[in-house]
Amino acid sequence: MDSHLLRTNRLCKDFKGQHAVSNLTLSIQRNSVYGLLGPNGAGKSTTLKMITGMLRPTSGEIIFEGHPWSRGDLSDIGALIESPPLYENLTAKENLKVRTLLLNLPDSRIREVLETVSLTDTGHKRAGQFSMGMKQRLGIAIALLNHPKLLILDEPTNGLDPIGIQDLRKLIRSFPEQGITVILSSHILSEVELIADHIGIIADGMLGYEAEINPGENLESLFMEVVKNSKKAGA
């Protein structure tokens, strides 16, 4: 079995002649947390949207489980990109019930994912009344319903308070033990340093660095160097 769950090979995405992602080659290890880093506008969200089928690549390829990605692979991918897709007038259980009906999953799965994200005690409270952290966790619960092999989280700690960030960090770190590989995009270096096993740094749509995180490594200095070199190359 390939030790990598997902690879991209020279992946590109253009918008009206502008390169959003250029020749991006990533290698995502199974049962790990991969931190996709980059400044705002670097191409992180565009990359994740291509992996989840929300955008079609201009060129290049995505290899999932050793074969070229197809829409059928979405049954093995869960994602939380941008805002959690919630019906704010429904409870946590009702939000999940809608999805289990769509995915033809048993009701027992609702309880399982609520336990995973620690949202079993929300009762009749509607999602619109949830805190930002609770909404994020419910969004992750939705993404976990189909037993994904790959979970994609785009800036999941945005807008969270310190306690919410700590809870989410602990939750994300638990996933590889459950056989779930995580790709986490962020521009908050300190958080990625605490969560990720490997990192890739994107600047101006190009991969400037990819490696395992080394304890004691100054991630901020590394990040700034990669971004600076990218600007020099593009000048």
UniProtKB/TrEMBL annotation:
It is an enzyme of class 3 (hydrolase). Residues 6-229 form the ABC transporter domain. One of its GO terms (molecular function) is ATP hydrolysis activity. The keyword Repeat does not apply. Keywords: ATP-binding, Hydrolase, Nucleotide-binding, Transport. The keyword Nucleotide-binding applies. Its EC number is 3.6.3.-. Belongs to the ABC transporter superfamily. PANTHER family: ABC TRANSPORTER, ATP-BINDING PROTEIN. This is Putative ABC transporter ATP-binding protein YxlF. The lineage of its organism: Bacteria, Bacillati, Bacillota, Clostridia, Eubacteriales.
